[in-house]
Amino acid sequence: MTTFHPAPEALLPAAAAGVSRHVVVAPGMCSGGSLVFGRIGDWTWEVVAESCRINVHAARTAAGDPAYLSFYYFHVRGGDVVHPHGLTFGDELRVDSRSFRFGSQSVITLHRLAPAGLELPAGPLDPAEVYENPHPHCLYAENFNRWIARTTAGSNRDLAQVTPPDFAYQELAPLPNAYSPRSLVGRARATGSFHPEGPPGFHEAGQPVTFPYTLDVVRDLNGAGLMYFASYFAVFDTMLLRLWRSLGRTDEQFLRRKVTDQKIGYFGNADPGTGFTVTVRRWRSTASPDVEVADMALRDSATGRLIAVTAIETETEAAGAS
Amino acid sequence: MTTFHPAPEALLPAAAAGVSRHVVVAPGMCSGGSLVFGRIGDWTWEVVAESCRINVHAARTAAGDPAYLSFYYFHVRGGDVVHPHGLTFGDELRVDSRSFRFGSQSVITLHRLAPAGLELPAGPLDPAEVYENPHPHCLYAENFNRWIARTTAGSNRDLAQVTPPDFAYQELAPLPNAYSPRSLVGRARATGSFHPEGPPGFHEAGQPVTFPYTLDVVRDLNGAGLMYFASYFAVFDTMLLRLWRSLGRTDEQFLRRKVTDQKIGYFGNADPGTGFTVTVRRWRSTASPDVEVADMALRDSATGRLIAVTAIETETEAAGAS
């Protein structure tokens, strides 16, 4: 009988310098809604657990209440070989991941998903590569996580920032200030958009549209009863599909879409029964008409409270001139 | 930098006797639709790959076309400690898995998910434990997989059974005939129900109801463009939730449901755009009114073709007398 155990001794040395793994893509980590984003998020939790010597999966506040390493900002960039909706089973990847110090209540984790066998720089994942000099074949992900706790038992509203006492972030390398996503995310939270004035080099295509969405009790909640960070990707993709259908595009075009960049800012959570209103704007690149950005804001319909914001840059294949 | 590699040499000896692993439950393997079922299915593929020395994730027919180790029957039994919708992050499990010989085109894989630290029999997972003497705390899963291939490129209809030439099933222990699910599954396929006459000791509660469902292009397809086996759980749960709401039950009751037994038979696949009709019947235990069975058949609305059948046994908490 074979026993799988990540040998503990193999994880300890210099975990703060990152983790590298060989991954064979399985059905549970591609398509199926937002499985690839869920898996990347699980890797973030693992790397933070190893780097900061904390039981991330069962963390507690100083008062003993459950603390969650929530996703506050998820940024992914698709490469020309590895991109989020282009994976299929059997694809082999090398995944390098590393967490960076970002204050006492939060942490930044970077991932590079490379085709296995690609020649890559030696040593731990360098933020300069991720932010300034990405390899064109690779998918990169940036996760900005904050520790939160419920302020009212059983309610997903009014979550508060906390610092679990055993979050040993001090040994992490700091994220260079130039790469901090704080102001980008703060602006998206304040304005309800990652592109309040539109992306440079793009022109708005059509009028903004608004779609309703109701929290899916079966699919949108995680094991702690909170709205699941990966589900936000599926919710926004559901809106993107509605938009594309309204433009006469086919489901097959949607399924073949290539996401070159997607950002989500998570600014609220929600309880079962919540109805949302999603406002969608669309821009098209002036130079490359097959490149589009869809910008969406998800709000609680009853209160107008901003729950999340996304910007999705796609290369649309044969999208036509609509 | 830490490198995660399942050391190949650790997997080779006696893989046919099974695999045991320690698992810390992550967000990506609980709730969120059907993540736990997706993860169990991924373990099935891994165990078959190791036991039969075949690249399951990128398998090919003799003609060189993609072959998929499809799920034909998925049976899960919930225990009083570990049950499918009762997992949350940080739960620690010991998972034992083992594949069994079941002809040249199919394979049976059994899994036991036990609370970590539970005292368990030594040695490889014994089918007699799974089928006759399950530990009351554990979740057991039985996966009956068949090799299939598309007969028309790009179409999810008319999938054919195949035998990949490098499927080395001969070294697997055979599944004792007494445990074969073939006749159970064959009857479900022929009658459209796992309980054509109702489960013994149960009486039918209410009239059968019928719900429409449309294939969810965002969430229901896998990385090969086929309807994802784990999504069938989410689809049937969506119908169960509609049924429960129609009975005046709350979303909170639904989220707290305990599934003690669920079977799915997969008899067809479907293309994007397919509309389904789901017929739901409900039985209540005569001796224990909080125990119910919901039996559902999912059919292609246009053709009436049977796509899948499920039976879900739940213990409903404070379900009332409806």
From TrEMBL, chains A, B:
Annotated ranges, domain LnmK N-terminal: 21-196
Xref: Pfam families: LnmK_N_HDF
Descriptive protein name: LnmK N-terminal domain-containing protein
Domain of life according to the entry: Bacteria
InterPro entries (alphabetical): LnmK-like_bifun_acyl/decarbox, LnmK_N_HDF
